[in-house]
Amino acid sequence: MAYQFDFAPVLAHTDLLLQGAAATLGLTAAGAVLGIALGVLGAICRAWRIQPFSAAFGVYVEAIRNTPFLVQLFFIFFGLPALGVKLSGWEASILAMVINLGAYSTEIIRAGIEATPHGQMEAAASLALNRAQTFVYVVLRPALARVWPALVSQVIIVMLGSAVCSQIAAEELTFAANFIQSRNFRAFETFFLATALYFAMALLVRQLLMRLGQRFIVGRPR
Amino acid sequence: MSNQRRNFLRSALAGAALLACASLPAHADTLADIQRNGTLRVAVPQDFPPFGSVGTDLKPQGYDIDTAALIARELGVKVELIPVTSTNRIPFLTTGKADLVISSLGKNAERELVIDFSDAYAPFFNGVFGPEDAAVATVADLDGKTVGVTRGSVEDLELSKIASDKVTIRRFEDNNATISAYLTGQVQFIATGNVVAAAVNDLTKLRRLSAKFLIKNSPCYVGVAKGQSALLTRVNEIIAKAKTDGSLEAVSQRWLKAPLPADL
Amino acid sequence: MFVQFTTWDIVRNLLEGGKWTLALSLIAFVLGGTAGLLVLFLRMARNRVAQALAKGYIELFQGTPLLMQLFIVFFGLPLAGIDVSPWLAAALGLTLFTSAYLAEIWRGCVESVPRGQWEASASLALGFTQQMRHVILPQALRVAIAPTVGFSVQVVKGTAVTSIIGFTELTKTGSMLANATFQPFLVFGLVAAGYFALCYPLSLYAKSLERKFHVAR
Question: Were both Cys, which of A77, A80, A97, C101 would link to A92 (CB 3.0–4.6 Å)?
Fold first, then answer.
């Protein structure tokens, strides 16, 4: 008898898969909001060379971009307790995602800010906009509008990368898949369904973020 | 779910996976193939000491590896070790990329639908371990506590069976993560093998592991693909012989530092 | 039972694993780059079917984890009667992954070439392939180099998931060693250092290319 596919033993755990998918989306949402916020902060420090923060963000960006996410996660989960900071699997996962996305989005948004023509700043000054208004309407929004697709792609990369969080027992989608297949040995069927869920989530998140971007960042007159 | 709907789902999903058909080209007789090729391909762990970990040359070693060598020797063929993880060990077997899985597999009814299991080849002395001063003597005392365990391992299966809902079980990827979680205080207790606990105590003085209670001795089995009855029978013969002629006893003494239980 | 590893044993084995990471990265980059160019041509083509195909390809392989792609190639195709060696599966999986991202990065670069260039070259009666080859790509190339080299860093780190199909690259070697020595901090610290050593020069190179391009403009 050859191997027979059977999705039923996996579909029996649909609730676990959906909970895992919801957890992955939650991790992604938290990671995206805080990570992009961190990225905006970093990008401003970098683009305007605000020392010593610019240098500090420079080191941070290189350290994070050139090392694997798994190692960053291990360091936070297993390393920080030695310094008296004990984070749960969830907290560690969110922190790792924020730190990771923060580094990439610092670079992405910086490129957007640096592409803002200088004339724009001068025009803003001549319109008697105050510093905060100038920043939001002349610097930040056009910069975000310019790099929004790249940011959305990076959020999706981070979402797919969050699969690694299963290694420290955070019960997200890959954890659910691995848990199910460790019980019923239906690895192929389980991973196939998990992949389909990841794909659906990637499409959903991309659509949602592109729409939000269109509505709040790109759409208004610049 | 009705049979029809299930069939529909199955074919739709399998079709979407770009599969020409939903079954393997039947390997008529793996045992004959093994003898013809002169090689036994065995999937073994390399992240699960003492059953399978690596030496300084990065070659797998451990109870499971010695068992694989023993079976190959009896078959009169060479052994080819395929290092696997708990994620890919079964696919290696079901896709015919490995002839046997010797990866400290525990058995349950669901798993038996997918692969066949041999007779037991190894005992597994698991327990729950924790700090010296923790007052835990039975599984009931774990209520409200957090226990780390390696996902999919025998101890995971057994602990999940006996622990109540009030126990928080954290399932980590591999032994290293489970043990690190204990050493760094991320979990209060862990379930693991006696030998592993002893080795950890030898290696680190960070947070000692003291035995709280033993989980039922749950043995390990060799995994064989479905429908390979000739191979399964032969493996069972070899295990039975190894139990009586002392060769499995030697493996047990070497890796588990304990005699093979008489009832295995 | 537990072998004692010296620090040198750990470093030596990690270097061995690093070689695999390097080899897999090169394969991913060469094959993925070639396939990415092909997908880019389809994506930019005037044929709607070709466009849709390329778009679907990019969405699919950007939207699913590389780990699962490798799993399905390596373990799924044999179930359909096609035997796949680990090398073939890794090459295929990494190519799909890399080409999807590169095609999308390069599309952005091609679109940054002013429309006038398309119109001017069309008025010279150049066909699509000729336009791309002689007019558009040479200009897009300048913009493309920095993000392409930047993405190569992600490819290097992405090769870690090939351990699912049996490759003992840097991350896998690290996890095997951590499980044999119970010294995760030393081992994973060294793993991070290894990736940094491979990736940082690429990042620096991307930066210098970016600067060069800015000056040239």
Answer: A77
Q: With 0-12 CB in 10 A as exposed, 13-18 as middle and 19+ as buried, what is A54? A: middle
Number of domains making up chain C: 1
Would you say residue C36 has pLDDT above 50?
Answer: yes
Q: Domain coordinates of chain A in residue numbers? A: 12-218
8 Å CB contact of B87 and A167? no
List CB contacts (< 8 A) between A188 and chain C: 71, 75-76, 79
Q: Which of C71, C108, C160 sits opposite A191 (nearest CB)?
A: C71
Q: Model's pTM, two decimal places? A: 0.88
Which strands sit side by side in the sheet containing B100-105, from one edge to the other? B78-84, B39-45, B100-105, B220-225, B115-122
B174-225 pLDDT, tens digit per residue, is 888 999 999 999 999 999 988 888 888 887 777 889 999 998 778 999 999 9
Domain topology for B25-123+219-256 = D-Maltodextrin-Binding Protein; domain 2 (3.40.190)
The pLDDT of residue C215 is 55
Least confident residue range of A6-20, B1-15, C37-51: B1-15
Q: Would C2 be classed as within a structural domain?
A: no
**CB contact (8 A) between residue B172 and residue A169:** yes
Cα A47 to Cα A25: distance, rounded to the nearest angstrom: 31
Residues 13-32 of B with CB under 8 A from C: 17-25
Chain A residues whose C-beta sits inside 8 Å of any chain C C-beta: 3, 5, 62-63, 65-71, 74-75, 78-79, 149-150, 153, 156-157, 160, 163, 174, 187-188, 191-192, 194-195, 198-199, 202-203, 206
Query: Please, which pLDDT band fits residue B23 given cuts at 50, 70 and 90?
Result: very low
CA distance B244 to chain A (A): 32
Cβ proximity of C2 and B199 under 8 Å: yes
In this complex, is the C-beta atom of A7 within 8 Å of any C-beta atom belonging to chain B? yes
Q: Determine the structural domain holding residue C177 and report its residue range.
A: 7-216
* Record: contact A81-B27, CB cut-off 8 A: no
**Of A2, A168, A178, Cβ closest to residue B177:** A168
Nearest Cα residue in chain A from B114: A185
Nearest CA in chain B to C162: B88
- Compute the residue count for chain A: 222
Q: Which of C21, C5, C190 is nearest to B54 (CA)?
A: C5
Task: Tell whether the model's pLDDT for residue C194 goes beyond 90.
Answer: yes
Averaged pLDDT, C107-118: 84
Q: Does C68 touch chain A (CB under 8 A)?
A: yes
- How close C103 comes to chain A (CA, Å)? 13
CA distance B204 to B50: 17
Secondary structure letter of residue C159 according to DSSP: G
Q: What is the pLDDT of residues C96-109, one digit of tens each?
A: 999 999 999 999 88
Chain B: list its partners (3+ Cβ pairs within 8 Å). Answer: A, C
B59 touches chain C (CB under 8 A): no
User: How many CA atoms, within 13 angstroms, populate the side-chain half-sphere of residue A49?
Assistant: 1
pLDDT grade, residue B16 (50/70/90)? very low
Question: Among all residues of chain C, which has the CA nearest to that of B46?
Answer: C176
Examine residue C70 and state whether it is found in any structural domain, yes or no. yes
Q: How many C-beta neighbours within 10 Å does residue A222 have? A: 12
How does pLDDT run across C37-75, given as a tens digit for each residue?
Answer: 999 999 988 889 999 999 999 999 999 999 989 998 898
Domain A12-218, second-level architecture: Orthogonal Bundle (1.10)
Quick check: bond before B259 cis, omega within 30? no
Distance of CA C126 to the CA centre of its chain: 32
Residues A198, C65: C-beta atoms closer than 8 Å: yes
Overall fold of domain B126-214: D-Maltodextrin-Binding Protein; domain 2 (3.40.190)
Q: Average pLDDT for residues A61-80, to the nearest whole number? A: 93
What is the band of A2 on the pLDDT scale with cuts at 50, 70, 90? low
